[in-house]
């Protein structure tokens, strides 16, 4: 069977290997990144979901938040891809089996394994809740048990709003049946229902009228071991106000109950038992998919199989790629660039007592400053640099290395590069003209800048770190002030309209993206130049300092003529 396309298309830059599974919400494929040979799992959403604009608007926001989660109990989300032919979720390819498969093959897990599973599930939920994302339809099918006994969650927020109860009827809190939105409290209810199934081999409620049972039936806590009944009562409380207020509260109650009943080594014993059960379940055939519940009269939207099924399980962690937290609430751009806590100096007086009307607010004429920067850089066309972009609602990128300016052309770079998603792992790279060269094993692979993954991150870095970006900010400024000059240089602080920056040649796309993501009409910036007018640092923010924003910042050092940066030989 050919797997080159799903529903007539393939996410660009990936080649399908085989199908991992699927359900009513879509099919999951094992795929290979064509540039880096990395294995990923791609979930192609069912056409009904891909065509549901309300769902897509909601999921876009969730995907941006989920892509920034680095947690051992969450399957990494790399990218959410929308195309004319459909929509797909690119995620980590993680090894393991679903909890649904474990329970179908083995039955009840025993209390220690059940406690370990609940603890891992709650930790995964906590990581998502910290990003303001709730799962909405948690069930055993989207809890993956890996080779080390970790419970790892996937398929966050894939149930359209209002359908969460029908998506996972045995685990749906009473308020979901009444049309209430999914919340932290409904996630805790679902996690407890899954915990109950691990203990007893069946969900807490089953029958023709699931809504009534969840609303009215007594909590069946007598079916579980005595020391754990209080956890069941708390988590399955009919009133969400009676459930634990947060995941942290529930974890505290779990720890107290587990230590009291089974001793301080409960977690190691439980993880070991869960690992054994998962290994045994992997030898059994995949169980048949559950039949749709008859309670709602609607077809449930069941998330596809988790992104497990064999392969590399290494996590790609880069400390510097996480969301940049702007230092010090209320700190000005000048404070950030100085790197100290002193208050910023007062702006220098206007350069003329009667400034021309065309000058920006603040009285600094950018034209001579731009000319001095261009002249200084032309005399020393190369430097060491660092760059980082991050924020509330975009995909971060980070890079450091060396660049050299070619006469009349784009800068070429030798750098270490990382972004987000499948480009999260830092790689050695070159940017020469409009091509990116990435080292994969012992070979170099080339691709055009732009698109997704590393080529997208490279294009973002090239635009944002360019000297042309800084001079475009100055030329576009509607406000520009000059700070006090010191031995290390001078800081110029200002504002520029996003619409004008979006039209700037070479750097417009990065500003169009920042403005669209944040809704900002003006961008704040600061640029520091040394006494010879060579840039040494810059900072740009779209959006409010203490609200929804994106930020990019960079630094330069050791300006001078650098050896020519040449493209490596490709395979």
UniProtKB/TrEMBL annotation:
Keywords from the UniProt entry: ATP-binding, Kinase, Nucleotide-binding, Serine/threonine-protein kinase, Transferase
InterPro entries on file: Kinase-like_dom_sf, Prot_kinase_dom, Protein_kinase_ATP_BS
Disordered as annotated region, ranges: 283-312, 336-365, 549-571
Keyword Lipid metabolism: no
Chain residues that bind ATP: 43
Protein kinase domain segment(s): 14-259
Species this protein is from: Actinomadura livida
GO molecular function: ATP binding; protein serine/threonine kinase activity
Pfam family, one: Pkinase
Domain of life: Bacteria
Segment forming the signal sequence: none
Name listed for the protein in its UniProt record: non-specific serine/threonine protein kinase
Biased composition (Low complexity): 349-360
EC class of the enzyme, as a word: transferase
EC number(s) stated in the UniProt entry for this protein: 2.7.11.1
């Amino acid at each position: 069977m050919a797997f080159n396309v799903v529903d007539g298309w393939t996410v660009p830059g990936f080649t399908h290997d085989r199908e991992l599974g699927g359900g009513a919400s879509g099919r999951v494929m094992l795929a290979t990144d064509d540039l880096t040979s990395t294995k990923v799992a791609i979930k192609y959403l069912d056409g009904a979901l891909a065509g549901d604009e309300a769902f897509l608007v909601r999921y876009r926001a969730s995907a941006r938040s989920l892509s920034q989660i680095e947690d051992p109990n969450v399957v990494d989300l790399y990218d959410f891809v929308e195309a004319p032919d459909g929509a797909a979720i690119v995620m980590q390819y993680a090894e393991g089996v679903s909890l649904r498969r474990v329970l179908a093959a083995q039955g009840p897990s025993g209390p220690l394994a059940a406690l370990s599973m609940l603890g891992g599930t709650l930790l995964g939920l906590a990581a998502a809740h910290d990003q303001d994302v709730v799962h909405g339809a948690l069930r055993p099918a989207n809890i993956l048990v890996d080779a080390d006994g970790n419970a790892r969650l996937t398929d966050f927020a894939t149930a359209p709003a209002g359908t969460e109860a029908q998506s996972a009827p045995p685990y749906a809190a009473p308020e979901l049946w009444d049309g209430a939105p999914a919340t932290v409290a409904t996630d805790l209810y679902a996690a407890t229902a899954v915990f109950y199934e691990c203990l007893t081999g069946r969900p807490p409620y089953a029958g023709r009228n699931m809504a009534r049972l969840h609303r009215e039936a007594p909590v069946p806590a007598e079916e579980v071991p005595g020391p754990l009944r209080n956890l069941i009562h708390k988590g399955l409380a009919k009133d969400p106000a009676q459930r634990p207020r947060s995941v942290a509260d529930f974890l505290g109650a779990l720890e107290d109950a587990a230590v009291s009943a089974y001793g301080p080594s409960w977690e190691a014993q439980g993880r070991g038992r869960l690992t054994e059960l998962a290994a045994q379940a992997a030898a059994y055939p995949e169980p048949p998919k559950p039949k749709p519940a008859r309670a709602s009269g609607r077809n449930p939207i069941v998330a596809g199989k988790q992104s497990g099924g064999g392969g590399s399980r290494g996590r790609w962690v880069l400390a510097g790629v996480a969301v940049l937290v702007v230092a010090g609430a209320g700190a000005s751009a000048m404070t950030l660039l100085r790197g100290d806590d002193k208050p910023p100096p007062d702006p220098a007086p206007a350069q003329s007592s009667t400034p021309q009307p065309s000058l920006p607010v603040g009285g600094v004429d950018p034209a001579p400053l731009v000319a001095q920067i261009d002249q200084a850089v032309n005399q020393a066309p190369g430097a060491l640099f660092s760059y980082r972009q991050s924020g509330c609602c975009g995909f971060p990128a980070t890079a450091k290395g060396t660049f050299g300016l070619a006469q009349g052309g784009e800068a070429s770079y030798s750098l270490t590069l990382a972004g987000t998603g499948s480009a999260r792992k830092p790689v050695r790279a070159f940017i020469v003209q409009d091509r990116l060269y990435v080292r994969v094993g012992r070979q170099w692979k080339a691709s055009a800048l732009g698109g997704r993954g590393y080529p997208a991150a490279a294009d973002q870095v090239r635009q944002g770190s360019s000297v042309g970006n800084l001079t475009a900010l100055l030329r576009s400024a509607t406000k520009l002030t000059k700070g006090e000059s010191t031995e290390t240089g001078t800081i110029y602080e200002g504002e520029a309209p996003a619409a004008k920056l979006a039209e700037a040649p070479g750097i417009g796309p990065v500003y169009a993206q920042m403005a669209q993501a944040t809704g900002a009409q003006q961008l704040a910036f600061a640029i520091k130049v040394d006494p010879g007018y060579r840039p040494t640092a810059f900072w740009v923010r779209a959006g409010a300092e203490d609200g929804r924003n994106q930020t990019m910042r960079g630094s330069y050092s050791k300006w001078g003529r650098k050896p020519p940066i040449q493209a490596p030989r490709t395979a």
